[in-house]
Amino acid sequence: MKLVLASQGFCTDEIANKVSELVGKPLENINIAIINEAYTALPGTMSKRWLINELLRITKYIGGNIDFVNLRAYSKEEAKQRCLDADLIYIVGGKQFILPQIFKETRFDETLKEIVNEKVVMGTSAGSMVLGKQIESDKYWFTRYNKHASEIKDRNLGLIDTNIIPHYLRKDRSQWDKAFYDDVLEDNPFPVYAITDSQALIYENEKIYFAGGKPVVFGRK
Fold first, then answer.
1. Which domain holds residue 129?
2. Number of domains into which the chain is organized
């Protein structure tokens, strides 16, 4: 299984070249299937410029066919086939809670688990978090989202036994610093890696390593 958990996708040449290595093709020959539905739950007053910029970075690096897999528009079989026709499945972020819900509703959680060993899967922000293990710290959920961990019914896929905190130390998230995560993730039973927008966690055949330098790690190590 080969996963790339990033904050903002193809932000650096290092991340792009690592994707090329994992796929086993030059970037100009990689075909990509984009799942881009997590933004739909964001308020209309929030600019989606970040989304356009992220998609533009894909066109900068990826030279093959670019397809969009709309999970609510296609049947389970059609969505699966479109993913199988690609080399890289790319899951865009957005509202954190929407992807587990959509995946469950459309049974894409089943599909992804069926094909994850055949394709490289890359997520950004919430699109990365949905691939990892569900954070269990009640303090984290209550402090960040005013929810208890037990209230979250649609859970992440848990493809690997860890997860990430995306956009670590970005200016608009400066209140969630190391001291904050040391506190709210202290009792989390597995490590959670805080990655900046120029970093990515790489999972390749049971090994974890990083692009852009090793991130800060929280939770039980």
1. 2-175
2. 1
